[in-house]
Amino acid sequence: MKTVKLPTSFEVGEIPFDEYPRPQFARDSFLNLNGKWEYAILKQNEKFESYQGEILVPFSPESLLSGVKDGAKVTPDDVLYYHRTFEVPAGFLKAHTFLHFDAVDMICGVFLNKQPVGNHTGGYMPFCLDVTNFIVEGENVIDVVVTDPSDSSYHTHAKQSLKRGGIWYTPQSGIWQTVWLESVPEVYLKDVTIVPDIDKKQVHIKFEKSNEEAPVLIVVLDKDEEGHKKPIVQAACKGSEVDLDMPEFELWSPENPKLYDIHFLVGTDIVHSYFGMRKFSWVKDKNGIIRMGLNNKPYFQTGVLDQGYWSDGMLTPPSYEALASDVRMLKSMGFNMIRKHIKIEPLRWYYECDKQGVLVWQDMVTGGTKYKMMYIGILPFIGIHIKDNNPKAYKKLAREAQESRDEFEREVKITMNHLKNCVSLSTWVAFNEGWGQFDSVRIVNEMKQLDPTRLIDSVSGWNDQGKKSSDVKSLHIYFKPIRIHKEKRRCVILSEFGGYSLKTKGHMFSTKTFGYKVFRTPEKLAEAYKKLYEKRIIPNIKKGLSATVYTQVSDVEEEINGLVTYDRAVVKIPVELVKSINDRLKIEE
């Protein structure tokens, strides 16, 4: 087997992820609270007496990188306690101070200096607490108390399962993304929305400020011929919205991932961001077939499914460099798109996609009660699609509780706002394979209102709601020949396929494995992969196939259908072969 040198052993420092975590809304004010905390895992009715050891935040206690010995397990009956002391340096505190948690799984309460400062529910959603009245210069104490029902309740749990196996993974708990502080002056910029318009040669910017009367100075920068950054557009805005003229610009695309820096000054508050001039839309090719469009032209998206799991950190990568390495590897293979499957990554992952020029399809994270194979697998597989807008369907598709449906809709809005300025994000994926699916027609229409600048894959895989309900016919095909039929009203995408598998001795999670089609040797795998694209993908492009998502980036636990192994140590199919195939996936102009 050919082994390709990959950076599989990323250094994890005393303070993991010490880079600034929010490149699209960056300030100089930043105090990282990652590192060693004390922890304890107790039953909910058990009296707390002492901490049990140290944990390396932001790695979940179930992960190897957490440093927790003997593989901790947090059950729905447990409480996970975190504690640490930290120093706030002189001069850091300004008028307002915010404590950020980029992800805590699942339900938590936060205490600062023994005072409650906030609660949060949602294992994949970032949240921010105003701690101005609780934090002090010098020594501070933070405590976090977490419970995690995993998939024993209706809450968002994605692919975590208390009964892991096959396509369902070991559950993890607690803090799994960066914890950090920032402090801002009395007048500050709360939020900004950046919307490029290549047709009008403008950038529309919308502000949210602590004082709506405060003016905003805006500066757009670009590099000159010598590589030095210089202002190319400057403007002042007294209101909440402004259109910036961009008479000359380069289009952003995977072939030319051009980014422009943009700075905002409100009072003494300075925020740094960036944007790219690009447009996502549905377009027709020369034969009248509806396609996914980039910058007003048909653009074939060749992508790969990315679960975002790591052998040593589970949902948390070893470092930001590890995230970047995955993106660079896929780019070198010729893929121009990644479907981020049932997970929200740290913002620096999207930044890497913006810089490298890799389009992103973003799944909404799934929840609901126990899924029933009859309704999420068997019936859709034989062509019976459930209408999802009634109480009977709610029950069948694990969304019977109103609280569960409300939670999903609330998290859709949070997700869309959180990732709204990602240049590479081209497509939202509302539901996947019926997992917790409900009212998809209404929800997708509301998503279009929230973000009319991106495409939406309404129901990826099955439980299609008909031609009038979605702009795409989204197919998952693993076990039967891929045949594409022309659609008059919709774009056709193959949002999952492949899943070709190979056992790689010494690089597997367990001897028990799962794969859609297993090959005995790397040579047989590569031969089958090439044949799959040449016989089933390339001929179907002219019939209307507009995008493909191959399963998947890496092995995940029992799944052995990755392009690379779970530990990223072995590339199973030669990079050159994958790239040569991807280079052939074009829409005729």
Brief digest:
Helices cover 16% and strands 32% of the residues.
Structural class category? alpha/beta
Largest sheet: 8 strands, parallel
Let me know the number of strands: 32
CATH architecture descriptor of the largest domain: Alpha-Beta Barrel
List the helices and strands and how they pair.
Layout: E1 31-32, E2 35-43, E3 53-57, E4 78-88, E5 96-101, E6 104-105, E7 107-112, E8 115-121, E9 127-130, E10 138-147, E11 174-175, E12 179-184, E13 189-197, E14 202-209, E15 216-223, E16 229-237, E17 241-245, E18 260-266, E19 269-275, E20 280-284, E21 290-294, E22 297-298, E23 301-306, H1 320-332, E24 337-340, H2 347-356, E25 359-363, H3 373-381, H4 391-396, H5 402-418, E26 425-432, H6 440-450, E27 455-460, E28 472-477, E29 491-498, E30 500-502, E31 517-519, H7 522-541, E32 545-551, H8 575-582
Parallel strand pairs: 23-24, 23-32, 24-25, 25-26, 26-27, 28-29, 29-32, 30-31
Antiparallel strand pairs: 1-12, 2-3, 2-4, 4-10, 5-9, 5-12, 6-11, 7-8, 7-10, 13-14, 14-17, 15-16, 15-18, 18-19, 20-21, 21-22
Helix pairs in contact: 1-2
